[in-house]
Amino acid sequence: MTDGFQAPKGTYDLLPPDSRLALAVRTAMIDAARSGGYEYIETPVFEDTDLFARGVGESTDVVTKEMYTFDDRGGRSITLRPEGTAAVVRAVIEHGLARGQLPVKLYYSAPFFRYERPQAGRYRHFWQIGAEALGTEDPAVDAELIVLAADAYRALGLTKVRLLLNSLGCRECRPAYRAALQDYLRGVDLDPATRQRVEANPLRVLDDRRPEIQALLADAPLVTDHLCAACKAFHEEVRRLLTDSGVEFVDEPRLVRGLDYYTRTLFEFVHTGLGAQSAIGGGGRYDGLSEMIGGPPLPGVGWALGVDRTVLAMRAEKIAPPPAARVDVFAVPLGEDARRTAFLLVTELRRAGVGADLGYGQRGLKGAMRAADRSGARYALILGERDLADGVAQLKDLTTGDQEPVALAGLVGTVKEKLQ
Ligand code: HAM
Prior knowledge:
There is one protein chain. The chain is of the alpha+beta class and about 425 residues long. About 40% of the residues lie in helices and about 20% in strands. It contains 16 helices and 16 strands. The strands form three sheets. It has an eight-stranded mixed sheet with strand order 1-5-6-11-10-9-7-8, sandwiched between helices. The chain has a five-stranded mixed sheet with strand order 13-12-14-15-16, sandwiched between helices. It has a three-stranded antiparallel sheet with strand order 2-4-3.
């Protein structure tokens, strides 16, 4: 122990073999985004606090309770990003990316920070793969993103993923729904804090997970009954394209999600093998976000998939991590001169694209051979003093046990040939 230091509360160290699982998850999600023509974007880990306050919404839990906010030495209020969408939209506006061909399709793979109460699947530092398509109001883009995510989960071998789907309407029809919901909520018995929320942001009340609140919401009006004709048609088209693509979904008219920028399409992927923190990914359309942060009209839609929770979902489904990266050759030098020669041979092998490792430390033959076996290498390359004098090394096939001398001159070529 290092003076008792531990990873900070709500964080954890990602260690093998789980780190392999996490990398496999990230790769599958990134592959999905790239297969749809999404390009990589990287934005800073911190942004102006106001970007999130205005983008994510002043009355959301994320902004009121969960942000890592501090003044920097220049007196600016800075926030560690709690999510990626506001920052991507900020970058697209700042650099005029939407002046070119539309939609602008971007993906990211990055850590995010929320000061949440830690529990299984809920961390203060977590990883998302996100994808955002900006500049197009075409339901096919919404469907594309959902299909890409669903296919990524499937490619990982997950079978217990459910897709929840909703539409939140637009600036035309949302106000009437908001008013209807407010009317209903004013008529039920709520605690003072929730009452306040009814006035400030009634849709947030639908997100309240407390069973007593959920019970009171049983007869609340549904957003899907208040959609305007355009929103209804848009939503039907998304549903149709999902069905045509063989992606199953469940209509969930009470789904609102915890961020204020959503309009129209809204979705969440939940895993039935996880506990309370079952949302392994989610997203939706955010046609007004750009204007909320002072930009021009710029419709958008996207998702963020939670890597940490997807790893937990894979563990719950007993999906094994991919095997550790193996080297092809493990060199076993016996003696000082052999050690230097082995170092150079290993370097040459690697430069030629052959994975190679070396028995470090002053180990005897037995210990070094055990290390070679453990490495999973196909060949051990044993170099004794006599071999050196003869200009050879002993190449031992670790699967068959066969051993033969190989000339040091041209050794890299010989090994490469054998590996093919
Ligand atoms: P979100 O639902 O807040 O959406 O987060 C997306 C995913 O990140 C969640 O489904 C979950 O898997 C993971 N996640 C969130 N918070 C935590 C946490 N504390 N610990 C572990 N995992 C967590 C967004 O962030 C939106 N920006 C998604 C989006 C993109 N909407 C449109 N474009």
